[in-house]
Design goal:
With 205 residues, the protein is an alpha/beta fold. It has one domain: Alpha/Beta hydrolase fold, catalytic domain (Rossmann fold), CATH 3.40.50. 31% of the residues lie in helices and 25% in strands. The chain has seven helices and eight strands. The protein has an eight-stranded mixed β-sheet with strand order 1-2-4-3-5-6-7-8, with helices on both faces.
Length: 205
């Protein structure tokens, strides 16, 4: 593993590169809003991607590198992510088909920026479809439009008891339900198996 710092419009991001011999593609993953790249589902999926012959990059957004837990607004997250993905796409992962994704907030960022980054597929872990309703507050809007806007193949791995809800399947979207909640830690082998099978079967790779 090798960590590199990449300048973005909103500060330095740190990218943890996990190469493989003769990669068939590359997978770039982002973390959740309040978590980091050590999240157990991200680690499990990284290992599964290695088994499928993909090099992996785990991206720490600039706000996390700076020691903050609360994320900035979506345009800031997206701009930093695009800068990172464009750098590794043109340098460390040059010539490789690129799959992007992440867990929770990181999955949303990957979906919103797919067309810009040129990714051939998107892997979403615990996509936060709709924030849980707070007492006395109106129901929050669904984020399904972010998934629906993606025109390349999408895999969503979702916990059966995820309080953010369960996205539906779509024309280019597969949803795999595994035991557990939004953390996706109840059955990590199931999470890894779903990711591995989907990556192996992607026609774009």
């Amino acid at each position: 593993m090798r960590a590199i710092s990449i300048d973005t419009p909103h500060g330095a991001a740190v990218v943890h590169l996990h190469p493989v011999d003769q990669p068939r593609a590359a997978l770039v993953l982002g973390h959740g809003a309040g978590g980091g790249i050590a999240a157990r589902d991200l680690v499990a999926v990284s290992a599964a991607a290695h088994e499928a012959g993909l090099a992996v990059a785990l991206v720490e957004q600039p706000y996390r590198v700076a020691g903050r837990r609360a994320p900035p607004r979506a345009p800031t997250l997206d701009a930093a992510w695009i800068a990172v993905v464009e750098r590794v796409r043109d340098d460390e992962f040059a010539g490789l088909p690129l799959v992007v994704g992440g867990r929770s907030s990181g999955a949303r960022v990957a979906c919103r920026t797919t067309a810009t980054t040129g990714a051939v597929a998107v892997l979403c872990l615990a996509f936060p479809l709709r924030p849980p309703r707070r007492a006395g507050a109106p129901e929050a809007p669904s984020r399904l439009s972010e998934l629906d806007a993606v025109e390349v193949p999408v895999l969503v791995v979702q916990g059966a008891r995820d309080r953010f809800g369960l996205p539906p399947d779509g024309p280019t979207r597969s949803v795999v339900v595994v035991p557990g909640d939004h953390a996706l830690t109840t059955d990590l082998p199931a999470v890894a198996a779903a990711a591995r099978a989907w990556l192996v079967g992607l026609r774009a790779l």
